[in-house]
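Lay summary

Proteins are chains of building blocks that fold into shapes. Our project writes down both the chain and a compact code for its shape. Here are two examples, one after the other.
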Amino acid sequence: MSKCPGFFINIGKEARDLLHKGYGQQPPVHFHQQFIDMNCDLSCDVSCRIEDIVPGFGTAFKLIAPYTGKVELQYLHDYAAVTAGTGVIANAFRGYDPIISFSGVVGSTPISLGADLVYDVSAKTFNRFDAGLSLRFSSVVASVTLNDKLNTLRAAFYHTVNPLNQTVVAAELNHSFSINDTIFTMGSQQAIFPSTLVKARVNTKGKVGALIQQQFFQMLSLSIAGEVDFHPNSLNWIPKIGLTIALRP
């Protein structure tokens, strides 16, 4: 028997990490301070999980300060994984709103199907409603998801070319039904040294990005990322450069 490959957030995770992780995205709400001509952004992401509080059940805690905090109860079976939780989410007008969340995945390692729901108790509306399908093979991972309350179709592909030097290629197609807009992104990565990883990506909107990640010991990593917008109608053609430092205990 093979364990269920994870909760809904893991559907398409490999392609998302290669194409987006480390390029300077911040959580939806984060600390921002401007000192004359210098900007400072700061957020804190803390999570922990306790397995087998009773057979098959575990509990998890996650905090992204000052964006959200959540406590979850998780059930993991050979062919199913379900999590239900409660917490708070930041609101620009009311401080923090209570939420109730539910997500689950059914299937096995080759194929799995999942859904993710987040209900805002104060607004009495669903903040999130996503669904997805994932296919996994020895060196290929493919997924199709419906995000943004089923408004965005995302298809992703991830292929490991050479695991010895971490050579990987990935592609992602995003289509928004509400505005009838499609973006295709493709990228690759390779470890030029055991502790140095290089990534690059390009999309059909004319944006080209590259990233160099240097690992120091096992706890500390430093990433330098840059992006240039070559779209003919873009007014923001000045290259963007970012620096990220990650410390993992």
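And here is the second example, written the same way.
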Amino acid sequence: MKKKIIIGILAIVLSMVMVSPVLADSKSAGVAIGADNTEAQLKTVYDYFKIKRGDVEETVVTNADEREYLEGLVSLDKIGTLALSSVYVQEKSSGGIDLETHNIDWVTDKMYESALGTAGIKNAKVIVAAYTPVSGTGALTGIYKAYEVATDTRLDETAKTTAVEEVVVVGELQDAIGDDAVNIINSLKSEIAQTKTMNDDEIRELIVETADKYDTVLDDQQIEEILSLVNKFNELNMDPDTFLKLVEAGQSTQGFFQKASTFFEEIGNFFRNLF
């Protein structure tokens, strides 16, 4: 009798997982592979993607493609000379960005999520992977290519370039001040309705005030780099409410996964007590 109860509970839990809105709401998908991977290395990457090669349309990203966006913004050691990171992108109708990374050691998940919103990618499942640790800066190019293949659309070039610069600025800021770097930038994004009407001195003041909320003091160079980025946000053809909605969606997603984690922890405790 007890065994039947346990099997019944497991069936319910599995059915809840299978009808997850993230999976049920998925649409078309695409993969962008780094051109300098061997077949064995690509097998490792596709294992991370949890699909077989050939299941979705595949495009190739070269180091020259990566440099098109990165050169002049990031040091050569972070660009490298090989294109190794690969990306799986699956479009979704809703639910925001569902992102995971494997062997990416400089760009964080939050940095990717924030930059994808800037580039105009609002709802997608994204997996960034490499067979060996890489910085992850070049992966944005792959994300763009895979997303455009999956959706048969073209992202705005200015938005893509701005998103790359955002990753670089936030990454360097994170090296200096820690994890609040992306929070500061996202907070400033949510103020775009105001910053569009501000002059540079007013934006500088807002940057300092925003950093202060996170108990952070920025030097003059950091303020100027952020100012340049905010001005580029202001120039994007984007509804001022969009950034705010993306930030709120990210916070809601984090809350969902926290609740999910708590739920499965409670399920685990239940079974421990049962046995």
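What can we say about the second shape? Residues 196 and 253 are 28 Å apart (CA to CA).
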